[in-house]
Amino acid sequence: MTNYDIAIIGGGATGLGCAFDLALRGLRCVLVEKGDLASGTTGRYHGLLHSGGRYVTKDPQSATECARENTILRRIMPHCLEATGGFFVITPWDDPLYGDQFVANCHKTGVPVQELALATMLRREPLLNPRITRAFEVLDGSADSFLASQSLALAAKACGAQILTYHHLDALVRDGDRVVGALVTDLRSGTQQRITCAYVLNASGAWAGQVAAMAGVKLSVVPGKGTMVAMNQRMVNTVINRCKLPADGDIIVPIHSVAVIGTTDVQVTDPDNYPIEAHEIAFMLAEGEKLIPGFSHYRALRAWAGVRPLYQDRDTPSAAERDISRTFKLLDHAARDGVEGFISIVGGKWTTCRLMAEAAANLIAQRMGNTQPCRTASEILPRPGAEGHGFYYLGQHLAAVEAQQAAGDLICECELVTRERVEAALADGITTLDDIRRTLRVGMGPCQGGWCIYRTAALLHEYQAQHATSHPINPNQALRDFLQARWKGLRPVLWGDQLRQARLDEQIYVGLLGVDRLPDV
Amino acid sequence: MNHPPPLNQGLDQCIKCNICTSACPVAAVSDRFPGPKYVGPQAQRFRREGQPVPDDSVDYCSGCRVCNEVCPTGVPIAQLNARARAQIVAERGVPLRNWLIARTDMIGRLSAGPQAPLVNFVLRLAPTRWLAHYILGIHRHAPLPLARRHTFRAWVAERRVQGTGNREQGTGNREQGTENREQGTENREQRTENREQGTENREQGTEKSVLSSPSRLTPPTSTPPTSTPPTSTPPTFSPHASSPHASSPHASPIVYFHGCATQAYEPHVGQAALAVLEHHGYEVLVPPQNCCGLPLISNGDFVAARRAHLTNVRHLLAYVRQGIPVVGTSTSCTLTLKEEAPEILGLHSADVQLLAAHTYDLFEFLRLLAEAGQLRRDFRPMARQLPYHIPCQYRAHRIGQPVVDVLSLIPGLQLSLSPAACCGIAGTYGIKREKYAIAMAVGQPLFNFIRQSGSDLALCDSETCRWQISHATGVATKHPIELLAEAYNLSYYQS
Amino acid sequence: MFRCFLAGRPTKNRAKIAQKNMEYDTIVIGAGLAGLTAANARAARGERVLLLAKGHGACQWASGCVDLLDAPEHPLAAIAQLAAKHPLHPYARVGPAALHGGLKLLQSACSKMGYPLVGSPTQTLRLPTALGALRPTSLVPLTMVAGEARQLAAGGPLLIAGFRALRDFFPPLIAANLRTQGFPATSCYLTMPNSERQRDFTPMNLAHLFERPAFRENVAQQLRAHVRQGGYTRIGLPAVLGLHHAVTVVQALQQTSNALIFEIPTPPTSIPGMRLAHALEQAARQAGVHIQLGSWVVRGSGSQKRLETIYSAAAAREQRHHAQHWVLATGGILGGGIRREPQGALRETALGLPVHSPSQANEWFHPHLFAPGGHPIFQAGIATDQHLRPLDAAGQIMYTNVMIVGSALAHCDPLREGCREGIAVATGYKES
C-alpha cells in the first residue's frame, strides 16, 4: 500500500499536465495509465496546435483559451512544436461573407490574425487551390503530442511524481461518501497494489465516464470519434484550415514528415472500439481536394481515429457533437454528486491541456490547503534525449544522420531512426514495439513497418538477451501484433502505392521471413 | 490538369524496395553516397524550402539516372536529387569551381580558336594542373579535351561562304539508295500530310547549297499557319516537315544542335552528322544556340540553367514551329532539350514543350528513318568488331539502343555491348577533385570491358564518356555517327 | 560479362535481317521471373524477342528459391490436385509440361552461370528464414542446401553468424527461433574485415566484398575459429556471399572453416533473387534478346482481336513498338501490373485489360493481416483462356496474340499459395 496526496487517472496530456502541476506545488502524486503515455486520445489526434481561429465564432471561450495557451506552449515546450503558422482560407465552397465575421471575431477573442494577399499565400503554399478567394494567417502550429507527453512526464518525475504506465485501474476505493484510493494492477507482472490518497483526479478523457462509474458517479462523456488520414508527404508546410464554421475534413496539418487531414466527428458508444468507415475517408479526401487540387492522388499512409472526450452537461443532454463546447469542465463531485475526494476534468483539447491542469490543480491545492501558485506557464519543460534546439524543424533528423554519417545504420529508414536511438530507447526502459514507435516514430513512415519492425524486434530480442528483463516480451508475437496494428490503419487506405507497399511488406514478412510460420512460444 | 503533377509527388511511388540502391554505381564504390533511395525519395520528405539544407551527401549523386532506369515503381529519383542539389546551391551559392566548369560554352569560347594551341599547352602543364587541383578543385588527372583552332561553327560559316559541302559527295551515292527507296513507298502515304505542312517553308529554302544562304542561319521569318502542339506525343513517326532524300527535289530542312563539345573540341562529330544528314538529302541548318544547360543543372545552378534553356528555346522556336526537327549528336544535350530542362527546371510553357517534342537524338532520328524504310543502305562493308557503350544519358531517353539498331545495318560490323552501367564521369562529376576517384571506380567495369575487347577503338555517344574511356583505357573513342559516315564512305573532315 | 554480338550474322539476305533488327516476333513486357522465362523460351524457339520493362523485376524481392506450392510433402502431386479442383488456376491452365519446361530452362540458365539449383518438384524442402522460421520451397541454390531442415535435424551443432553492420540479419533472433523448433543453434556476430568501405554494408555491397578473396578469407578464418571452439558442423550466413561467384565463395568458406555453409535470404535486396534474374538475363542476351529497361508501357492499339502496337513512355514522346506476339508479364499488385485507383477499382496498367477480382471491394481485405489464405484482392488478375489469352468480362478473347503470364494472372495468390516462382516459370514457358 502506498500513500499519496493525489492519484491521477489517465496518462494523456491532461493527466500528465496535472501530475506536473501538482508535483510542482509539492504535492505527492501518482499517475495511473493502462497503456503507454499518450496511448489514448492524446496520441491519436492530428497534432494541431490551435491558434484559436477555429473556435472564434462558435466557441469564443475556447478560442481565447487556445490563443493564450498557444503562446504559453511555445515558450515552455518549443521542442515539441513546429511553428508552421496557419492559414484560414475561403474556398469556392465556403460562404464568402464569413471572412469579415471571422476577422472580427478573431479580434474579439484575442486571436491574432492577418489577411494575406492571395499571391503571397500561393507563393508560400503553391499547391493550394488557386480558386481560393481570401486567406488569413494565424499562429497555428503542429505539435508532437508523444514528445510533449514524455517531456511532461520527465518534468513531473523530476518533481517527485510517480508515473505508473501499463497499470490497470481495477477499482476506486470508497469509504462512505469519500473516495480514498484505488486498486491498480501492473499489467506486466500481474501484481495488484492499493493506492491510498486524499484525492482521485479523473483525467481519463473519453474513458472518464467509466472511471466515474467506479466511484459510483454518473458522468456523461460522449466519445466523439475523429477520423484522420495521414498522407505520405507534406504537400503544405502551413496548417491549412477552411475559413468557415468547424466541420469535417476541414484541416490539413503538416506534422513531421506527413500531412494529416482531419477530422470527422461521430458519436460512438465504446471508446475502445470503433470502426473507420470507408465513406469517412472518401469524404475527407474529397474535402482535401477543395484545399489542394489533386490531394486524393497523393499517397495516403494510414487512417486512424481518436475519441474526443466531449462532456455533456446535464442541462443539455442531447447536443449535436459539433455543438458540445470544446472548452473543458472541472467537476467537483463533492458538490455535484456528494462524493468527496473525487474530481473529474473533462472536455477540452490538447492545446489547452496545461490550462486544464492548472484549473484542476488549483482546486485540489486549495482543498488540501496548499497555497503554492501554479508555475507551469513559465517552467520550461525538459527534452528527452538531447535532440535539437528551439522549435522542431523538419530537417532535424536528416541533419543529424548526415552529421553522424549514419545513413547505413538506419533501423527505420522512412523516419530516419538510427540503431543508436533504438538502443538508447531500449536502455531507457521502453520495451514494447508500439512504445518505440510512439517515442521514435519507428514504423510510422510510408512502409508502415515493412523494413524496420523486423529490425526493431530483433534489437529488442538482443537487448532482452543481454540485460535481465523482468518481463521479457516475445519478439515474434510483438512483431506480429505490431504488423496487425499497422494493418488496421492501412486497411481503409489501401490503393495505389500504399497497396503496393502493403503487398511488398507481406512479401517480406510472409514470403521471405515466414513470420506467420513461427511458433508462438 | 495542364500542369504536370509536382515532382515531389513522384516520391510517393517509392516502396523502399532497395532496387535502386543495389544498382547505383556510385553507392557501390563509395561510402560518401548513401544511395538513391536514401537521398532521393526518403530524404526529400525531410527537406523544406526556406529551411537550412539538412544534407550534403546528395551532392555525391552523379546524376547518371541508373536509379530511374531500374526503379520498378517510377520514382523520378535523379530529378529529386537534382532539385535537392539546387536547393543547396540556392542557399549557399555556387562554388567557384562548379561555376566555372558548368559554363562549358564559355570555356569552349575561351579555349577554342586561334589561341587553342596555347591554351591546350598551358592547361596541360603540370603546374597548371597542380594549381587547378589544389586551388580550384579540378582533379589533376581528370581528362581534358583538346580545344580546336577551327571550331565547328567556324567551319560551317566557311562552308557557307565557299558554297560547298558534302552535297556532291552525297549525290554520287544517291543511285545506290534507290532500291531502298522502294521499300519506303508504303510508308509514304501516311507521311504526305506531314509534308504538306512543311511545303510553305520548304519553298523558302534554297535548293542548291545546304548552307549557301546566310539567312538560313537565322530563323525564317514566317510563322507557320498552325503549329500542332506536341503535348500529346505523335503516335506515328512524323519527322515533322522533313522528307527523306529521295522523295523531294527540295532538300528538307533539319536543325542540328551541336552542343559545346562539338563546337570547341570535336567539330568532326558535327561534320560527320552533317555529312550523314546531307547524304539523306536534308538541308542541315545550324542556327545560333548555346549550351543546353545540363552542366548548370548538374551543378545546381538552376538560375543560369533556366536562362540557357530559354535562350535555346528562343533560338530554335521559329524552326520547330514550322515542324523542323532538331537533332543532336550529344545524347545529354538532346535529353536536356527533351526532358531534363522542362522537368527539373519546372519549365512547362508551350514553347518549351514544342521544342522538346521536336528534338531527337540523331540516331533516334535515323532509326525512325530506317523504320520508315528511308535510311540509305549504301554502306561499304566494315569487317570490324567494336565495343560500344551506351551512355547512361542515352538510356535515360528510354528509347532502347538506336545506335545498335542502326549500326547493325552495316555489313560486317559487329558491336559488342558494354554491360556497364556508367563510365563514371557523368559530365562534370568525374573531373572534380573529391569525385575523381569515385568516377574512376564507377567506370572500372566499363574500362575492363573495353580493355578486354582488345579493340583499338570504342564507340560511345557522349563526349565526356568518350574522354573518360580514352583517359582510363588509352583506347581511342569515336561517336557512332563518325563510324556511320565512314560506312557511307563520306569524307567529312573539312578542317 | 553480358557480351553479345548483335549484328553481322552470316546470311544470304542481309537487308532483310537488318530490317528485322527493329522488328520483333515477340515483345515481352516485364522483367521479372515470368517475363525473363518467356523471353528465353521464345528466343530458344527462334523468335526475335524484345524484353521491355519499367525496371528490374520482382526477383530482387523474393528468396531466390523456387516455390512451387506450399504443400507438406509432394508439390507436384499437390499441384495436380489443385489443378483438378480449381480449373481456372494458372497451374490448371498451363499443365505440368509447361512447369517442367520452365523449371528446366531456369535450371539450365543457372547452371550455366555456375550456380546450380538443386531439389525436385516432388519434394518439399524447408529452409530457415532470416527470422528463424522454416519456409517450404522446392528448388534451392546450391549455396542454401546445407540449411535444409532435414539436414539440420540430422547434423550437429549449428552456428548462425552475421555482421552487426548488416541491418537485415540478426543471428541471435534466428538462432533463438531455431532453438525453439528443436535445432541446436548458436549465434555470433563476426568482425567486419577491413576494406575501403567503412559503412553502408548493404546486402549488395557485402556481396561485392565477398567476391574479393582477401575479404572472404578473413571471414573464413573467423568461422574456422568458431568451429574449433564450438564444434559446429554447419554455419548459416546471410545470403550475401557474392553476386556472380556465390558457389565459389561458399566453397572457399567451407574449405577453410571446416563446416558446411548455407545462405539465408535477407529482406530486399535479396541477392539470391538477383542471381536468378542475372542468370536469365544473361541467357536471354546470349540468345539475342534485346532488353530495354526504364520503359513504361502506357497503352496499346490493335484491331480485330490482334494487338499491333504498344507505346512506351520516353523522353518527350512515346516510343512505338511492333510485334507479332506479345507476352504481358507485368506482375500483380506488387509488380505493378495491376493497380487500384484511389478508393476505386483495379486496373491493368499497360494495356487497360479488364481485371477479374474475386469479390466485392469491401471484402478485399481481411481484418487480420495473417489470415490464412490471405486477402481476396490478391487473387485479382487477368482472366485467360487455356492458352493464357486475356478474356473480357463476358469471357471473350480480347487479343489472340497476347499471352498473360506470371503474377498478373487471376485466380491465384502466388505469395500465399507459395507458388510464385512455379507460376512464373510455368506460364512464362508455355507456348502460345
UniProtKB/TrEMBL annotation, chain A:
Pathway: Polyol metabolism; glycerol degradation via glycerol kinase pathway; glycerone phosphate from sn-glycerol 3-phosphate (anaerobic route): step 1/1
Keyword Methyltransferase: no
Catalytic reactions of this protein: a quinone + sn-glycerol 3-phosphate = dihydroxyacetone phosphate + a quinol
GO CC terms, sorted: glycerol-3-phosphate dehydrogenase (FAD) complex; plasma membrane
Record's subcellular location: Cell membrane
Any one GO MF annotation of this record: FMN binding
E.C. number: 1.1.5.3
Assembly and oligomerization: Composed of a catalytic GlpA/B dimer and of membrane bound GlpC.
Similarity section: Belongs to the FAD-dependent glycerol-3-phosphate dehydrogenase family.
This protein's name: glycerol-3-phosphate dehydrogenase
Organism listed in the record: Candidatus Viridilinea halotolerans
UniProtKB/TrEMBL annotation, chain B:
Composition bias, Low complexity: 238-249
UniProt organism field: Candidatus Viridilinea halotolerans
Pfam families per UniProt: CCG, Fer4_8
Annotated PROSITE patterns: 4FE4S_FER_1 (PS00198), 4FE4S_FER_2 (PS51379)
Protein's UniProt name: Anaerobic glycerol-3-phosphate dehydrogenase subunit C
Phylogenetic placement of the source organism: Bacteria, Bacillati, Chloroflexota, Chloroflexia, Chloroflexales
Region (Disordered): 163-249
4Fe-4S ferredoxin-type domain residues: 3-35, 50-81
NCBIfam families, per the entry: PRK11168.1 (NF008369)
Biased composition (Pro residues): 221-237
Compositional bias annotation for Basic and acidic residues: 176-206
